[in-house]
Specification:
Elements: H1 6-14, H2 35-55, H3 61-77, H4 84-103, H5 115-126, H6 135-172, E1 178-180, E2 186-191, E3 203-212, E4 217-220, H7 221-224, E5 228-231, H8 237-243, E6 251-256, E7 276-286, H9 297-310
Antiparallel strand pairs: 1-2, 2-6, 3-4, 3-5, 3-7, 6-7
């Protein structure tokens, strides 16, 4: 989950004509009695802390906040501002607030904004108060809470895919020649190769044909008549595991449960919680490109996302 933009919190605070010199801008511990209370407060706290750390450093931070917030208020009112960039920000914040009324807090229609808690969280974040949360815990709470809610929403909408996949894998695992690993991955050897077995750090060339359990084809290098090359550690977990078991020259049918595929994520035509079936031919282990510099974990993650998007 991406970290929520700090300007979103400022947009909400602007409604209260917030200024740093206002006597009401004191750190205090609000009463949090529900998950939505804590979520609103954590959102304000995390963004208030970020504003303090990254945008308003220095002895004159309070004055900067006052000027900045006044500019946002005038921008939201449509008043002409001597500093046009602040008016533009105010218009953006106003637009975001209108969207939140329709879509719900953080895009969840079941969540409602509590302006008072966001405002107090913002103030406490600015004052680096740690009565109830610290910045790291606030952001972790937002991320964890929204991820759990997202998983639940996907489960309600696409839970049938998960159930169908589990039933399929249970029955498939009983068939002759089908091997089930500890992770739940299943494979059937069609042709046994006699070449080397790839390591997780290797790059391989493969041909594959991918279908859902109902036989619908979602991707196929075989149909494109063009094999693909990629690092073993930069594909879905089911592939990474299978490739480290296959000798070069092998042809396997691989059955990937949803938790080793894309899980709750939609992947183009692949719905969340889908079990996937692949015919895989491991053609070769490719020699590393000596001219290619070592990638950082961030670069590896970006490459994996690009590869998945191309499928």
């Amino acid at each position: 989950m991406k970290k929520q933009n700090i300007f979103f919190a400022l947009a909400v605070i602007a409604i209260f004509t917030f200024t740093a010199c206002n006597s009401g801008n004191k750190a205090k511990a609000p009463k949090l009695v529900s998950q939505i209370d804590s979520l609103n407060y954590a959102f304000g706290f995390a963004n208030g802390n970020d504003l303090k750390n990254y945008y308003l450093k220095g002895d004159s931070a309070d004055k900067k906040i006052e000027i900045f917030m006044r500019g946002i208020e005038e921008g939201l009112k449509g008043a002409e501002e001597k500093k046009p960039e602040l008016s533009n920000l105010g218009m953006r914040f106003g637009g975001w607030l209108k969207e939140q009324k329709k879509a719900g807090f953080l895009g969840d229609s079941t969540l409602k904004i509590d302006y008072n808690l966001i405002r107090q969280g913002f103030i406490n974040g600015l004052n680096k108060s740690k009565d109830q949360m610290d910045p790291q815990k606030a952001q972790e709470y937002i991320n964890t809470t929204m991820q759990v809610r997202f998983e639940k929403m996907m489960q309600e909408k696409f839970g049938a895919n998960k159930a169908a996949g589990e039933k399929f894998m249970a029955e498939n695992g009983k068939k002759p020649g089908v091997v089930t690993t500890k992770s739940g991955l299943q494979y059937q050897i069609i042709t046994k190769g006699n070449g080397p077995i790839p390591k997780i750090t290797d790059k391989v060339k493969v041909h594959y044909h991918g279908t859902l359990i109902d036989g619908k084809v979602f991707d196929s290098s075989i149909e494109r008549k063009e094999p693909v090359t990629f690092p073993v550690n930069q594909v879905i977990p089911g592939w990474t595991e299978a490739l480290q078991l296959m000798p070069v020259g092998s042809k396997w049918k691989v059955f990937v449960p949803q938790n080793l595929a894309y899980g709750s994520k939609q992947q183009q035509s692949i719905e969340p919680f889908s079990t996937l079936i692949f015919d895989v031919e491991l053609i070769s282990i490719e020699k590393p490109d000596a001219a290619m510099p070592q990638m950082t974990p961030e670069q590896m993650q970006q490459l994996q996302q690009q590869m998945q998007q191309q499928r």
